[in-house]
Amino acid sequence: MRTEELINALVTDEPSTRKRFDLVLAFAVALGALVAGSLFFLAIGFRPDIDEAVKSAPFLFKFVVTLSLATSGVGLCSRLARPGVPTKEWGYALAIPAILLALAVFAELMLTPSSSWKPSLIGSNSRFCLTLIPLLAVGPLACLLLALRQGAPTRPGLSGAVAGLAASGIAATFYAANCTDDAPLFVATWYPLAIAMVVAVGYAIGSISLRW
After folding, report:
1. How far is CA 46 from the centre of its chain?
2. What pTM did the predictor assign?
3. Residues whose CB is less than 8 angstroms from the CB of residue 190 and which lie 6 or more positions away in sequence, other chains included
């Protein structure tokens, strides 16, 4: 249970309390990224053609999408942890990765022959995508949920789900460096499915662990 003093401080959004929680959240993000990164480099690693891949726009675009998801998710977590603080701006920010992907898919459909659409969508790593993103997200999700417990979220399920989005963004950023499927059709299909698994887990855990 939170103390009345903590809750009142969070409700009034006192600068000292806000700064303290933001430091906790920043530490959670850094620690979660460290855990995910350690697992990535120890067990997965970069794709074999990484030297050539970094010169490819579709490969680099994946990181624009995943990092925008991670950033907007963390920003919304920060707001949800403080009662009464507006969340609309960061909620809108969560639409950025979806819009970027939609535009990229549209461009791919316009610029490539229809015969290539199905192979691009199916790719060759869908099973790995559905497995590795949730696996890499475990550490970041745990860290973010622990950080949120230092706040006073009034919507525990939603807060847990958003923590899942942020954790997925971190995990997907690492996984994207291994995945050899760069087509927007693939990314827009399989990455969201993997992310949805983490969001569901975050919602379920948050609904219980973030109550106060």
Report:
1. 20
2. 0.91
3. 123, 125, 126, 129, 130, 181
